[in-house]
Amino acid sequence: MMDLRTKAKITWCAGCPNFGIYTAFMNVIKKLSEERKIDINKVVYVGGIGCAGKIVNYVNLSSVAGLHGRALALAVGIKIANPELNVIVFQGDGDTYNEGLSHFISACKQNPDVKLFVHNNKIFALTVGQNTYTTEEGFKSKSLGEEVFMKPLNPIALALVSGATFVARAYSLWLNHLEYVMRRAIEHKGFAFVDIIQPCITQHDTRKYFEERMYKLEDVGHDPKNFEEALKRALEYDYNLDPNAKVPIGIFYENNRITLEEGLKSLVFYKIERKYNLKEILDIVRI
Length: 287
Ligand code: SF4
Prior knowledge:
- By secondary structure, the chain is of the alpha/beta class.
- It is built from 10 helices and 10 strands.
- Helix 1 crosses helix 6, helix 3 packs across helix 4 and helix 5 packs antiparallel against helix 8.
- Iron/sulfur cluster (SF4) binds next to loops.
């Protein structure tokens, strides 16, 4: 049996739903590798900053730790430099929808063959509970002092209208369904975005809210090819923890169009061969 765990000490809080994402990711990669659908030597995963970003230390695959909000941009660069790689990104909601919002919209529009898994706990958890763009109105934490007065952003709706070709939501503690969505995202050709509900059990425990209101799109015959229907489903839950809302999870939308790498291949600068002499570079560095 392939063991993808590293020996690094895991510093997430005991019982943190990040363990669900970590376990599901390893299970999916293992299965895809056993089925010879993926070469683990060609998998690169990139992490952002915060509790979510710690995952780069825990899975024994090539990984890169990015800057806050920039892991997605870094991943797109990796994919353009070597289109043969399977490039996967793990960011938090603060990473993705605050600092990295323009990179997120660009990826939806440009369609790089990169997969983005967002650990969405609706706060900056590692720095003890400041609000992000997906925090609900009225939320208050010790570190904030005041109640949040802004309406949250709806990243599922934003991804849809920005042109993303794979848009999904999953729940970090429903492992079988999470693995199904992650696998479909990894197998998708083009930019795949999954907003993973990951309650922070220490700072903002939303498990009860979600577990009472979630339903699976696959159970109600949702057609992920239907853009208008996907948007309608996306608007059923506006991230404000409305007691009357239903929270759909699963694949909202999937489509195919030219990827960023395929488009860039036709451009002249993409074909420039970089010739360098390693000895000369080392001599310069030594000076
Ligand atoms: Fe998980 Fe929250 Fe602890 Fe971070 S602070 S490890 S998100 S429970």
